[in-house]
Amino acid sequence: MQQEKKFTPMSGWGPLVVVIGLLLGAIALFVTTMVNADYIHGLWVGCGVVGSAILLLAGVLGLCGFMAIAPNQARVLLLFGDYKGSVVQSGFFWVNPFFSKKKISLRIRNFETGSTTTPEKKDAAGQVVTQKSRTAGRPSKVNDRDGNPIEISAVVVWKVVDTAEAMFEVDDYEDFVAVQSEAALRNLASRHPYDSEDHEISLRGSTQEVSDQLQADIQERLGKAGVEVIESRISHLAYASEIAAAMLQRQQAQAVVAARTKIVEGAVGMVQMALDHLAKDNVIELDEERRAAMVSNLLVVLCSDKHTQPVINTGTLY
C-alpha cells in the first residue's frame, strides 16, 4: 500500500526571476545576432542562434515547473511514474519541470446516497464538451431485518486525508466513496428493523446509534482509499409505497392499544385509591355486591372514550 510522503518544494519567486531572465536573454541574444549578422563571422551567427534557442527552451521548460496551490488543495508529484511525494501546503512553488503534478482536493465534501455521477465528455481535440455532474440523491429501496421493504438514504460528509492512497489505491476515489457508502447503507438497513417496541436498536427509534454504526461501516470500507468519514446521517426513511398504508394502520392500532393500556392501568389505580379512602375514613360500609357495582361504575366512567351520562337512583337495591 502506497503511503503519503510530504514533499517540500522550492518557493517559486526566485526561479520566476531566473526564468524571465532566460526568456529575455534569449530574445536579446537572437535580436543582437540578427542585427550584427553582416559584421560577424557566420560561425558566430550560428552560435548566437543556437544559444538563443537553448535559452528560450530552458525558459519555457522552467515555466513548466511552476505551480500555485490554493488552500485545502494538494499536488501529487510523479517523475516518469515514480511517486516522489505530495505537496499539501498552499502557495507559489517551483519543482522539477519533469514532474507530473496531479491535482487533488483536501476540502470537506458531502453527497447523498442514491445519486449518480455523469463523467465529463471531451471531443476529438481534447476540449471538455460536458462537465462532470452529479444528480440529486434518490432513496434506495431495501428490506429491513424483518423483510419489510423500506426507502432509505443518507448524507455522507468526507474528505481526503491521504493523497497517495486516494490517487493510487483506487481508480476513482470519488466514485469509490459513493459506491461503498451505498453498499454500507444497504447492509446497515438489513441488520435492523424499521421500528421496534422494545429497547433494541431500530432505524426509526435509534437515530444516533444507527448514524454512528453507519459512519463506522463506511469508514471501514473507505480506509484503504485515504478517505476520512466525518459524519453520516440518515436523511430519508420511510416504508415503501406498497406497504406504507398497511404499516400506518398497524402503527395506529399499536398506539391505540398502548393508550388504552395506560388508561386501564390508571383507572384501576384510581378505583383502588377510592375504595381505600372510603374504607379508611369509614364513609360507607360496602358489601361485596355494592363494592362490585361501584368498581364497575367507576371503571366505566374512567375508561370510556365518551362523556358518561349520570343516572340518579332514587330507590334502593334492597
Describe the protein's topology.
Layout: E1 10-11, H1 13-35, H2 42-63, E2 66-69, E3 73-79, E4 82-87, E5 91-94, E6 100-105, E7 109-112, E8 117-118, E9 121-122, E10 128-130, E11 133-134, E12 140-143, E13 149-160, H3 163-168, H4 173-191, H5 207-222, E14 227-239, H6 241-280, H7 288-303
Antiparallel strand pairs: 1-5, 2-5, 3-4, 3-6, 7-13, 8-11, 9-10, 12-13, 13-14
Helix pairs in contact: 1-2, 4-5, 6-7
Shape: rod-shaped
**How many individual β-strands?**
14
Structural class: alpha+beta
CATH topology of the largest domain: Tetrahydropterin Synthase, Chain A
Task: Give structural notes.
The protein contains seven helices and 14 strands. It is α+β, with helices and mostly antiparallel strands. The chain has three domains: 96 residues, no CATH class; 117 residues, Tetrahydropterin Synthase, Chain A; 60 residues. Strands 7, 12, 13 and 14 form a four-stranded antiparallel beta sheet that branches. The chain is rod-shaped. The model has no long low-confidence stretch (mean pLDDT 84).
Notable characteristics:
three-stranded antiparallel β-sheet, single chain, alpha+beta, four-stranded antiparallel β-sheet, 318 residues, Tetrahydropterin Synthase, Chain A, rod-shaped, 7 helices
Question: How would you concisely characterize the structure shown here?
Answer:
The protein has 318 residues and is an alpha+beta fold. The chain is built from seven helices and 14 strands.
